Amino acid sequence: MGAGGVLDDPLHELLMQQLPDRPASVRAIEAEAERTRFPIVGPLVGRLLETTARAVSAKRVLELGSGFGYSAYWFSRALGPGCSLVWTDASEDNERRARELWQTEFAHVEVTFLRGDALGSATPLEGPFDVVFCDVDKHEYPAALELARAKVRVGGAIVFDNVLWSRRVLPGHDDGSAATAGVRGLLSALRDATDLSTTIVPLRDGVSVSIKTR
């Protein structure tokens, strides 16, 4: 796939032209991620995260898998003073980078940093949250969905990244890996859920957005 993931490159470039300006520190993360192939969501998906948070009037956001804090930056654009976000990641270096970005770009948001296994760190947290964003290891996606359902409020949103998984979810494209099985299991669970209304947005590597209906 090209830079646009499931979109062809000209469409990707057209959509990129619709984005708001980003601070130099955020653009630097984008450039570094492209150079080192570090998996950030990218600005198009970031804008979708911001829009989703605005749509549900989010005040509390839980991230399962946070990396450099790039997705947290996009959520912060929808969060006013007094709102909060929980960052989770296993990497000490990622936490350091995320704290630096928080201090320079979205210090108006109260951020709790939980370093360690994302699902394990989030399990004891008291809900409800308005948005739960999931970008953990893909074999954990079905378990992440169950955790997100328990933590999000009715009317809140659950968002998963990489749900098209470079086409490996298609019949005949399954590579037999635990990661692919996890993404396919998530898609089946979202399709069959009676408490979630889900749409899949074909940006980058695919994003599912689910609203908890009951």
List the main descriptive attributes of the protein structure presented here.
globular, 7-stranded mixed sheet, 41% helix, Rossmann fold, 214 residues, single chain, 21% strand, alpha/beta
Q: Can you offer a commentary on this structure?
A:
The chain has 214 residues and is α/β, with parallel strands linked by helices. The chain has a single domain, classed as Rossmann fold. It is built from eight helices and seven strands, in the order αααβαβαβαβαβαββ. A seven-stranded mixed sheet has the order 3-2-1-4-5-7-6, with helices on both faces. Helix 7 links the parallel strand 4 and strand 5. The longest helix is centred in the C-terminal third of the chain and has 15 residues.
Strand and helix map with partners:
Layout: H1 9-16, H2 24-36, H3 42-55, E1 60-64, H4 70-76, E2 84-89, H5 92-105, E3 110-115, H6 118-122, E4 129-134, H7 141-151, E5 152-161, H8 178-192, E6 196-201, E7 207-212
Parallel strand pairs: 1-2, 1-4, 2-3, 4-5
Antiparallel strand pairs: 5-7, 6-7
Helix pairs in contact: 3-4
Q: What is the CATH-assigned architecture? A: 3-Layer(aba) Sandwich
Q: What is the gyration radius calculated from CA atoms?
A: 16 Å
- Assign an overall shape: globular
Runs in which pLDDT lies below 50 for 5 or more consecutive residues are none
| Number of beta-strand segments | 7
Strand order of the largest sheet: 3-2-1-4-5-7-6
The N- to C-terminal Cα distance equals 37 Å
